[in-house]
Amino acid sequence: MNTHLHVTAWALAFILFIVALVLHKQGKEKAAKIVQMILRLDYLLILYSGGDLIMNYFNGSPMLAEAIVKGIAGIGVIAGMEMTLGKIKDGDSAKVGWSVLIVAFIITIALGFFRLPGGFN
Ligand code: HEM
Is the pTM of this model over 0.70? Predict the structure, then answer.
């Protein structure tokens, strides 16, 4: 299975995340809620495709540990998006959510693009 699905799934997640944020800011709560529900379905696609990619490393690969850390950081990105949207919806400070999101995203990109071989094939 391919990297395309994974990259498409998380790129879509970022778009939906931004759209949900903007809708919240505009006070369009119902629309924001619907977009967030679609975003949650997209998480399943990210988890499925990411889980599938991790399977490639259970063959004695020396990079298994890094692939697992990559997966945990990916789950951290999802957690960060959920925390941020949840706090903003409640009108609370979303600082922790943003921090989790940004730190997890940096680790994810560093490992996904620059450490793990992956690639589009
Ligand atoms: C929104 C969250 C996520 C982002 C932004 C993200 C980002 C990325 C990126 C940039 C790549 C490299 C693609 C390439 O090689 O061209 C990648 C690959 C991968 N991701 Fe994710 N990912 C996320 C979630 C996950 C999750 C939840 C898992 C595990 C369950 C996961 C596991 C993997 C694995 C195993 C690879 C393959 C690495 C390789 O062989 O190069 N990712 N991801």
Answer: yes
